[in-house]
Write a structure and sequence with these properties.
Layout lengths: L2 H9 L2 H14 L4 E3 L9 H8 L4 E4 L13 E2 L2 E2 L9 H6 L6 H17 L1 H4 L3 E4 L2 H9 L7 E3 L17 E4 L8 H10 L5 E4 L5 H5 L4 E5 L3 H9 L3 E4 L9 H8 L4 E4 L4 H4 L6 E4 L4 H13 L1 H18 L2 H20 L1
Parallel strand pairs: 1-2, 2-5, 5-6, 7-8, 7-10, 8-9, 10-11, 11-12
Antiparallel strand pairs: 3-4
Helix pairs in contact: 2-3, 8-13, 11-14
Length: about 325
């Protein structure tokens, strides 16, 4: 798409407005649930829904409304410079795709629709995935009474009882996932074994580290299988994860999690109950926790039992469905009042 047309679509998509207006007229929905409108759907979706008197529920899967790269991460460090402000610093730094022009378009979209009150007045409910993220969204300017919490979930039977061995990483091999920290930790503890499921730009950092077995990107059924065979899942992220689905999958598989004590991870994992924490970016601390886990299989097995129990209380389809229906009903009732 030509750059100028793309910029226009990002700010306001007349195609989305027209198409959604037509769809609403034909289908007459009670509620519209949006997950991602950037870039081509654009916030015109919210205005079309408002014109038709249909409430919108928007799930917030990242921090795009407050941060141009959506991660609150710059040069491997947490960065909140644009929180609650016009994101001019993000434009100057080219935070979106390392491009100042692209960053300017995104910043323009955010500034325009903040000024128009789109996010404050045209969305009935925002869904945050946990309390930490909810607090950040409110800090960034969203109305507190519109931001509710519904975590991720998976549908998973009880895990098989097997002899678990080795540690596991599942996810994209990229900077924000803490691959550099994991690689350094593996070099410090050469008697640790870890399987790495995933691919990405930093695969070369971990591929040649001692004790690493590269599994590549795996389908979900194979991820479940290796989770059931492992001692612990390693989550070394250095950014504010929203709610990694891999953690829910791990809990469902009776697999405790060794995670960075950062952002929402500090709320999702319970230290010495459903897993262990280490300081984000601290390879030595991670190496020590991995060595402890490998040397204490009985304790890790008990944490895995706790993790499965936590899953059954909080992250099953049945629990999540009721949470979602309650959000829909609240949005619909408010629209009708």
């Amino acid at each position: 798409m030509p750059a100028l047309k793309l910029a226009g679509q990002t700010l306001w998509s007349s195609h989305t407005f027209s198409e959604l207006t037509s769809l609403v007229r034909k289908f007459q929905p009670d509620v519209i649930h949006a997950h991602n409108t950037f870039p081509l759907i654009s916030p015109s979706l919210y205005w079309a829904a408002s014109k038709a008197d249909v409430p919108v529920v928007q799930t917030l899967h990242n921090f795009r409304l407050m941060c141009l790269n959506a991660l609150f991460l710059r040069n491997g460090q947490v960065c909140e410079d644009c929180m609650g402000h016009v994101p001019w610093k993000g434009v100057a730094r080219g935070c979106y795709r390392n491009s100042r022009p692209a960053s300017a378009v995104l910043a323009g979209m955010l500034t325009l629709h903040r000024g128009l009150g789109t996010f404050q007045n045209k969305v009935a409910r925002f869904i945050a995935l946990n309390e930490f993220c909810r607090d950040k969204f409110i800090q960034g300017g969203l109305p507190p009474d519109l931001v509710t919490i519904k975590p991720n979930f998976v549908d998973s039977p009880p895990p098989m009882e097997v002899n678990r061995q080795g540690l596991l990483f599942v996810g994209r091999l990229s900077t924000e996932k803490g691959i550099n920290t994991l690689s350094s930790a593996m070099s410090m503890q050469r008697d640790i074994n870890i399987s790495v499921a995933g691919d990405g730009p930093e695969a070369s950092l971990i591929r040649d580290a001692p004790g690493v077995t590269m599994l590549g990107a795996l389908p979900s059924d194979m991820v479940r299988s290796v989770m059931e065979e492992s001692i612990a899942l390693i989550v070394p992220s250095i950014w504010y994860e929203n709610f990694p689905r891999t953690i829910v999958e791990a809990f469902a598989a009776g697999l405790p999690v060794i995670a960075s004590r950062i952002g929402a991870l500090a709320d999702i994992v319970s230290d010495k109950n459903t897993g262990l924490f280490f300081e984000p970016g601290n390879a030595q601390d991670l190496a020590d926790k991995m060595a402890w886990a490998q040397a204490h299989p009985a304790e890790m097995h008990e944490m895995g039992r706790n993790a499965r129990a936590h899953y059954e209380r909080s992250f099953t389809p049945e629990v999540n469905y009721q949470q979602l229906i309650n959000i829909y009903q609240a949005a619909i009732a408010e629209q009708q009042s």
